[in-house]
Amino acid sequence: MYIYSNTVFGQLLNFLPKDNFKAFVGQHQSDRYVKKLSTWGQLAVMLFAQASGKESLRDIELGLKSHQETWYHLGIGSCAKSTLAYANENRDYRTYESLFYALLKRCQAVAINRAFDFKNPLFSLDSTTIQLCLNLFDWAHFRTLKGALKIHTLFNNRTAMPELLNITTGKVADITAAKSMALAANLEKGSIVVFDRGYIDFAWWKELDEKGLFFVSRVKKNQKQFVLGQHQTVLKPNIIKDEIVMIDEYFGHKKYPNQLRRVTCWNEEKQTAYVYLTNNFELKASQIALIYKQRWQIELFFKWIKQNLKIKSFLGTSQNAVLTQIWIAMIYYLLLAYIKFQTKLKKSLLDFTRLIRDSLLFRRDLIDLLSLNYQNISKLRENMPKQLSFL
User: Fold this and answer.
1) In degrees rounded to 5, what are phi and psi of residue 91?
2) Which is more confident, 280 or 351?
3) Most buried of the four, 84, 277, 364, 386, by CB within 10 Å?
4) What span, in angstroms and rounded, lies between the C-alpha atoms of 13 and 331?
5) Could you give the angle at the alpha carbon of 363 between the alpha carbons of 359 and 364, nearest 5°?
6) Range 121-128 average pLDDT
7) Which segments of the chain does DSSP mark as H helices, in order?
8) Quick one: residue 69, left, alpha or beta (phi over 0 = left, psi -120 to 50 = alpha)?
9) Rounded to two decimals, what is the model's pTM?
């Protein structure tokens, strides 16, 4: 499927792996009994909503009706709000989940890796919570009177891309979701996974250790370790201790009987000491401290998607509609990242997102558009013909 459109949005859609998408549509029978809005049409409309920042079904409908001549070229059969609402409610979200991972493979092939002073692949594991009204989203149980969902994410610190997503209700604990993500099966040997104290589970740590994966975590205040000796004696000024320890709890030691490394680092800015546990005995203590500091990148990722993608307010209240919107939002993130990697664009992803939003339905070559600034975009908008033909 090739999109015969010279609009910026049409060119964006051509970067999607359409052959894979057709296979996913067939696998989940997503186009069965479809009359107006196909699965591809639903994807295009929802991506349009993400790219243009539309807040409601009515906004989406009016936004597309003002550019009716582009529908045929974009493969959109209908933009009626009732039709889109029905599709989000009933069409299996797993079609878009599969498309996300297919696009991720394309991104991985062209991604620019951030350099560290060690060779191991580095990943951060964490979750972000999206609050929901329990009366409207009655499936999203969190607390007695509150609803929420969690996006559990394995984030690649070298490429700044989410590698694994697990979307659950807010009631699911982080460690429970992490176990179901099967990190040992999805990461190459020697990879380092960094996470906070919410992921302390000694049986799970042993599983990671046996699969050849390294981990770095903070230490709980009430967690006991028995010191066996010093690991490194020559330390940098900000490293207070570098010790070899074992879990000093009966059940904890039974689940994880191996030695661990405990690094104590002094933070001058906050005037406090941070203690880290890891099963990596090869890297320097300063590198272990730096690795945990890199966990902040996943927090920045969560902040970015909440501010720039439509994942906090939803177009439907069913679980399928919510998951559909989230997966398509993450597809849009990867789509922008893929183009940024391929074109070696120096603009930040935030600036690129704004550039696309302000020129989405311009008839302009995408490559030429990347060199424009906001003043040029304003001039293009002024010269763009007004189209207000509504049904």
Assistant:
1) -80, 130
2) 280
3) 84
4) 11
5) 75
6) 97
7) 8-13, 18-27, 39-52, 57-65, 71-74, 81-90, 94-110, 174-180, 183-186, 202-210, 250-255, 285-293, 296-308, 319-343, 349-358, 366-369, 374-383
8) alpha
9) 0.91
